[in-house]
Design a protein that fits this description.
single chain; two-stranded antiparallel sheet; Opacity protein and related surface antigen; OMP/PagP_B-barrel; Beta-barrel_OMP; about 160 residues; signal; Porin; mainly beta
């Protein structure tokens, strides 16, 4: 849902779900860790449509701020010949993004935004807890969740033409 203030400035509020991030890291001792990460973001975005038109295309830049709920699934660890599972975690954090792209005007009511977005969802965390054997206590940890994305968004103009 969004609002166009004039020909150059527009805003929107988006809810997005990213469910295909993967953590795959190794520590200094050679233990490999892997887990799935999911993120739900609630973002308020602002766009500036550049005063340049190339046929039906118009370039834009934008920024967004909001919050992200980041879920780190339980983490599988492998230190051959041993392996196991340790607790994941959840974190809600400040999120931000910057984007650039072009709007393709289909007609007076419909447009397609195509572009690039850098997305920073804040922290992901690993909770302290016992591994799946109940023998090893692991401490908490955290890291940053960021991505480079190519996106396509469909815009529908409601109300007056």
């Amino acid at each position: 849902m969004g609002y166009r203030f004039n020909k150059s400035f527009r805003t929107d509020f988006t809810i997005s779900r990213r469910w295909d991030f993967e953590l795959g890291e190794a520590d200094a001792a050679g233990t490999f860790f892997e887990a799935d990460i999911k993120s739900t973001a609630y973002m308020f975005n602002g766009y500036y449509d550049l005063p340049v038109k190339l046929a039906r295309f118009r370039p834009f830049v934008g920024v967004g701020v909001g919050i992200a709920h980041n879920d780190l699934d339980d983490i599988d660890w492998i230190f051959p010949p041993f392996s196991g599972e340790i607790p994941g975690g959840r974190e809600t954090d400040f999120a931000w993004q910057v984007m650039a792209g072009t709007t393709f005007k289909v007609n007076d009511r419909f447009a397609l935004d195509l572009g690039y977005r850098y997305y920073d969802a804040g922290d992901i965390v690993k909770d302290a807890g016992l591994d799946d054997t109940g023998l090893w206590l692991t401490g908490p940890a955290e890291g940053d969740m960021q991505s480079h994305e190519i996106f396509a968004e469909f815009n529908i103009k409601l109300g007056r033409k």
